[in-house]
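Let us work through a complete example step by step.
Step 1: write down the sequence.
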Amino acid sequence: MEKILVLGGTGKTGRRVVRHLKAAGIRVSAASRTGGDVAFDLGRPETWARALDGAAAVYIVEPDLRPGLDRRARVPALVAEAVAAGARRLVLLSAHGVGEAGDDHPLKSAEQAVRESGVGWTLLRPDWFSQNFSEAFWRQGILAGTLALPTGDGRTPFVDAEDIAEVAAAALTDERHSGRIYYLTGPRAVAFGEAADLIGRATGRTIRHVDVDPEVFVERQVANGVPPDVARLLTGLLANIRDGRGAAPSDGVEHALGRPPRRFEDYVAETAAAGHWN
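Step 2: predict the structure and record it as tokens.
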């Protein structure tokens, strides 16, 4: 049986992609810097060959979006090596807005390399993950009771990482998804204040969203050890939501899977019941 390689196989989407593929009885290898089936580091090309060996399809994630990083030495080089090693299908986890951004977007060269690879490809452009409230950036604020972000009353259609993973698994195994770009969002746009209220009600706690001036937010991130260029990049993305430039709900999940995307309310209920905000 041919192997599917999942890069970032222990990460937020990767581990879910692995689970979906294993549930379907597909041979899968989770590649990660630590804890996966095979060691892999996008920043260390000497780790690539062993991971790519025998992989017919590859799920690609770029974990480092720092401005100024040499993009040509990472995903484009990996794509070339994967195709040379025999991969016939590539699925890239990209991001909302890449198609409308200028050439300086961190994922622009990765998308171009995948689309020009000469093999079957699928691009996934998700909005902000729902799981950022429970597994990443914003969990600490939720636990502290104050979610301080420069988002104002802006709204965005958070997408569940489970939906992203299910679309990725389908694209890795079904050629009908080749040549497709899927914009992945939840069914409706949600404000951060509403998100905090929903999580508060589900956990029985008071959680409030506090708007923060973008410059103040950058200063706080840097004070907490975030590199200044990364802090400015993240703040700019959040400020886009504040300014009403968040993503509009899309039908990408439904097009790919034939069902509506999961609601943010369902994510909150399931996450609270699992004790992730205890």
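Step 3: interpret the result. The chain has a mean pLDDT of 94.
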